[in-house]
Give the backbone structure.
Amino acid sequence: MKKLIPLILSLLSVVVVVIHAAAVLTFLQTTSDTTDQTTYNFIAVPIGPAAADRCVVVTIAARRASATETTITSVTIAGNAAIIQGQNSFVESGADSVVGVASLIVTTGTTADISVTYSGTMVRNLISVSNLTGAGCTTIADVEISEIDDPSVALDIPAGGAAFGICLGSISAATATWIGLTERHDAIIESLTIVTGGSLAFSTIQTGLTVGCTLSTSTSGETGIFVSFSEASAAGVVVSPIIGGGIF
């Protein structure tokens, strides 16, 4: 028996398989405000069923009637400061286009007040809200911006993660087509601005995935931001004994 032990150990390998929680992404709605404001307050916005890992993701688009670069200075969800995961300000043709993505873990409630504050007075603003579970909320894998007609980027997305994008153009007579992500909304604000958004959860890793939006009519002030959220922490570890020292 003692002679068999070294032989058995030499044939036995241990493979550790890390299992990640599956991400579930639900697009909920868009809400817009056409008044001129520095802070926009959206009251009792649906955020989906409560969950311990519910990540509320807010994508943001706004216009300023001034050739002045403007920033999103704060976003709050249910009275708490959200993380601004990325933003871009693009000045063209005498106006400024601002896009951004913010997120926060919100464990309770099915609605929340959402506020967005800017460094200057905007003339219109839109937010879209999604519910993400089973993925990271505070750790971002990649952020890319685009300031070209038909904004498009190469985005890295981890397995078990999710990606969001939002594009803005200063025209109303247009529709959008998305690549890489599922189109979630087209919205015309004040008959002057189109805002379109896309998102998708991924079970496999994506390296340099082409994501973007194509508008049916060329406009000025086109810009987009695209953000990928990391995978959640490992849901568990499975230890598998493999005989013969290999994986079959």
Remarks:
- The chain has one domain: 24-233.
- Residues 7-19, 234-248 have pLDDT under 50 and may be disordered.
